[in-house]
Design a protein that fits this description.
Number of strands of chain A: 8
Strand order of the largest sheet of chain A: 3-8-4-5-6-7
Helix content of chain A: 40-55%
Oligomer: homodimer
Number of helices of chain A: 8
Low-confidence stretches of chain A: none
Structural class of chain A: alpha+beta
Largest sheet of chain A: 6 strands, antiparallel
Largest interface: A-B, 17 and 17 residues
Chain lengths: 227, 227
DNA sequence: TAATAAAATTAGGTTAACCTAACTATTAAA
DNA sequence: TTTAATAGTTAGGTTAACCTAATTTTATTA
């Protein structure tokens, strides 16, 4: 039996593990993410370990087993399908979809997910550019990197964002930077790593390194010097 | 704070009260409806009474206060809007929609409900012919009565059903009786109150009194002799 | 490296939502 | 109208999901 809460714990572990792959997922990380206290997390972790969804020890932190990963990826799948549906079919904005999808992802009906996935045309990516896992939990390939890794002169296309906060998304909307937009890196400030960008519609856009880290792009030229 | 369970208790009381208006809503009724045991219901009733959503005593049973009724009607509204949306937009069958709507009705987003209500064209009735309360909790007027109350020769139109079970809905689908279909009561069997009906597509349909009680109709002739 | 800060853990407590068992009050039937 | 059945109620217990406070580890830093 997968409950709403269990799903959220597994998804949190998945997301935290993916957010920073170098770091292990600690009880405190999970507690902050889910807005509960560490003892609550420890308690739940013990249950998830017993159910075979997670392994845990102080040094490696919490890790999903294959079963746990399958469940987590299914929730991620549902979430991203709903986000896309809300955005494309029901005309919600980029920044509104997340919160509603957060509820809808727990609706238990494979047929409903299949149906709306069909309606949106079985896409590989959601409106934030995040990959939608398939039913087997496989993620579509994509070669994305932060805009902040660009070098001067690089031409690239926006494929997604790694931050989904409303402030950040609204900031991008203001700058008129959206999914699939082409960017040219005019200049990089050596002091604070801020960049100057141009798009079709606008030139000399100034952007902080902080923001550039959250924008995921791909070089357009096949052998671009960007790493 | 209205939780998922609280919403279900209030909805149950509303539905039981409407199902049989002559009878008071007892703890046992609610327990059977929600598939829990009577002591669980008593406990929850005490909380709902304290919150001002319900009144309760042994003789009158559980009754919704105005606040309680408002909440219950809002859930009923969401449920019926989702049913209609699933049926009309996502091509689910008559008999499939209920179970999924049962989950979707608890999604908390007025904007989402408004959006899908718009998409389906702001109808007054759902695909079972049940009235959709408006935002203020007002039900659209309709003059429906069970088919079983018809007299011989009556011409009427199907406006809904009062039973929503899958067996019953599939039975109607088999008989090719659907919403807005016209029926003529050919004959009524005096012994067991079963009736013989005809529709556009079929004649001499035999139907038990039990089934006829669950079909809601309206006479077509303005001064029909049916009561 | 000793002191301090931070994280992990344990102990023990609360609340909501369930339950069974036992008892009391009603209602229905013999 | 006594008895039997049913419904309502109380008592007491469980589990999940939270919490705080205290303790033990582990890291950090002076």
């Amino acid at each position: 039996m997968k409950t709403y809460r269990e799903e959220n714990y597994l998804k949190a572990i998945y997301q935290l593990a993916n957010h920073d792959k170098s770091k292990s997922v600690s009880p405190t990380d999970i507690a902050n993410w889910l807005e509960v206290k560490p003892p609550t997390v420890l308690e739940k972790l013990a249950i998830l370990v017993k159910k075979g969804y997670v392994t845990y020890n102080k040094f490696d932190g919490a890790k999903l087993t294959q079963t746990g990963k399958d469940i987590a990826l299914n929730i991620v799948r549902r979430h991203r399908i709903w986000e896309t549906y809300l955005y494309k079919e029901l005309k919600f904005s980029w920044s509104e979809v997340h919160e509603i999808a957060e509820q809808l992802e727990h609706i238990n009906s494979d047929k409903l997910i299949d149906r709306i996935y069909d309606v949106i045309g079985n896409p590989d990516f959601d409106p934030h550019g995040d990959p939608i896992p398939n039913k087997q939990g496989k993620l579509p390939k994509s070669d994305r990197r932060p805009l902040s890794q660009s070098i001067k002169g690089c031409k690239c296309v926006v494929l997604g964002v790694s931050e989904h906060s409303e402030v950040f998304l609204n900031y991008l909307t203001e700058l008129k930077i959206g999914l699939n937009d082409k960017l040219i890196v005019e200049q990089i400030n050596a002091y604070d790593d801020s960049l100057k960008l141009s798009t079709k519609t606008k030139e000399h856009i100034l952007m902080s390194a902080k923001a550039a880290q959250q924008i995921l792009v791909q070089c357009i030229k096949p052998n671009c010097a960007c790493k």
